[in-house]
Amino acid sequence: MSFLGTRAAVRSYGPTPALRGVTVDVAEGEILAVTGPSGCGKSTLLHCLAGIMRVDAGEVFYRGRRIDTSSEGERARLRRTEFGVLFQFGQLVAELTAAENVALPLLLAGARRREARTAALAWLDRLGVADLADQHPGEMSGGQQQRCALARALVTEPRVLFADEPTGALDTLAGEQVLGHLVRLAREQRTTVVLVTHDARVAGYADREVTLRDGVLDPTGLGIAAVRR
Amino acid sequence: MSTPHVLLGLLATGPKHGYDLKRDYDLRLPKAKPLPYGQVYATLGRLERDGLVARAGQEREAGPDRTPYAVTPPGEAALDSWLGAVEPPLPHLNSVLLAKVIITLLVADLSRARDYLSRQRQAHTDRLRELTAVKTDPTASVADVIAADYGINHLDADLRWLRTTLDRVADLHGEVTAR
User: Fold this and answer.
1) How far apart are the C-alpha atoms of A129 and A114, rounded to whole Å?
2) pLDDT tens digit sequence for A9-27
3) What pairs with residue B163 in β-bridges?
4) Is some CB atom of chain A closer than 8 A to the CB atom of B112?
């Protein structure tokens, strides 16, 4: 059994299938890109791997244990301590400063306020946005917000980072800066990364790529429309 | 690529002899088609003949004679004209990839065509990953990054075209073989 993965994962939204028996393995320290067109199931796969969503059938495992059968409390603990998540839109709390946003996961985990702020400032510095510590998200560019969101996702030093279209809302250069930081820090920390993207240029940053089409893995990495015919 | 104009451009930053010109070319255009020394000297000879460059003294440093060349006023005018001229988008689609895909659809069965497109995509993806590694290497120069970007964006365009083509492959195959 690999570090993280699924076995024949199935998940539907009402009558609409999103995953139709997906088996994927992620090695520890690997950066895996999950690619495919809109609606192919790649974000659903990420949510299932991260324990945010349950599969309807099949298995999800992490470090040798099934997490699809874990309690909600246990999966919430994993998301707090072992997993970091970065979405397309950083989802920073608008009322908090950058430093307060980054410190938030540590405070939720029971850290003291001063320690949490010190760690948050160090992470903002590693991402080149230390000077924004006391600014609110509304005062930052999209790229700056996403770098703060990346700092928040990494501040707990998770073993796995789940990134769902992390540069989808950014211009090319800002996106490259975020990806450059993400990959550099992941390598330094030996963080495993699951990177969902529809962009081949973003997938180019990964060690390996798997492609989904209509809820199944596509071994050709290309279109399945022809296969359907 | 117009090698004479590129060499004129490199000389415009200051006189250089052939050896330094070749090194400068490799530095500024790191992923371009390699330029052999012989071509550098042959091009310099033609530029000199046409009055676009001229010898600028002679250096002798322990080794063989080295003749630096400088751009002349007519050379500056030729360079200026080249830099200002818009490059027309290519009138013909001369891609080997395009030709091969069409011929594959003509002579191969559907599964073989899909197999080829899939393997071609893999080769492009591998190259894209290599260029991304070049670009993100902390020691990469700006020229390395610009050249890698050029390659990455062209590969990405090919990949999107391959994907669309595979989506259409059954229709294309039927149309091509019906004629």
Assistant:
1) 19
2) 999 999 999 999 999 999 9
3) none
4) no
Q: Choose among A185, A220, A223: nearest CA to A205.
A: A185
Q: Which of B153, B156, B170 sits opposite A229 (nearest CB)?
A: B170
d(CA A211, CA A172): 22
The whole-angstrom separation of Cα A205 and Cα A207 is: 7
Whole-model pTM? 0.81
Q: Nearest chain B residue to A220 by CA: give it.
A: B118
d(C-alpha B128, C-alpha B152), whole Å: 6
Residues of B in contact with A219 (CB under 8 A): 118
Q: For residue B44, name the pLDDT band (cuts at 50, 70, 90).
A: very high
Tell me how far apart the alpha carbons of residues B175 and B179 are, in angstroms, rounded to a whole number: 7
Q: For residue B129, list chain A residues with Cβ-Cβ distance below 8 A.
A: 204, 206
- Interatomic CA distance for residues B151 and B145, integer angstroms: 10
This model of the complex carries an ipTM of: 0.80
Among A224, A227, A206, A204, which Cα is nearest to A215's? A224
Does B174 contact chain A (CB < 8 Å)?
A: no
